[in-house]
Amino acid sequence: MKYLHSMIRTKDVNASLKFYQELLGLKLLRKSRLEDCTLYFLAQYEGAPEIELTDNDQVPSEGYKNGNAFGHFAFRCEDMDAFVKKVQEMGYELMYGEPFNLDLKNEDGSITVKRIAFIKDPDGNEVEIIYKG
To answer: The pTM is what?
Structure first.
């Protein structure tokens, strides 16, 4: 068994493609047209888990409502300061202000220190950015 992708519906596929490609660095691997929608598959590289953006022909004017079961996607970055600068340059805003440290205690008692930030994509889906140092 291999995890393949998560699908999210988008109100504005161009805004979503810009967010996932330009800000997060994903590549558009392929695009498929179905009877009532177009699917865009993005990933870091061929064979990696993908995000499938679904652009339905008929989109509710208010967009889609996110349920309360889904939490967030998570991405690791190599340089949190550079990521924050890019967020600002592209006109996005981080949730909760600045990145913050999160100390997680592992089962063996060791502490994993992470610096994290959250941002929302154009459709309101939360994305966690993790810097492990």
So the answer is: 0.91
- Whether residue 98 lies in the annotated active site: no
* Catalytic, out of 46, 50, 107, 128: 128
Fold of 1-57: 2,3-Dihydroxybiphenyl 1,2-Dioxygenase; domain 1 (3.10.180)
Q: Along the 133 residues of the chain, how does pLDDT read in single tens digits?
A: 999 999 999 999 999 999 999 999 999 999 999 999 999 999 999 999 999 999 999 999 888 888 888 899 999 999 999 999 999 999 999 999 999 998 888 888 887 778 999 999 999 999 999 998 7
Contacts of 45 (CB under 8 A, 6+ apart): 27
Do 1-57 and 72-133 agree at the fold level?
Answer: yes
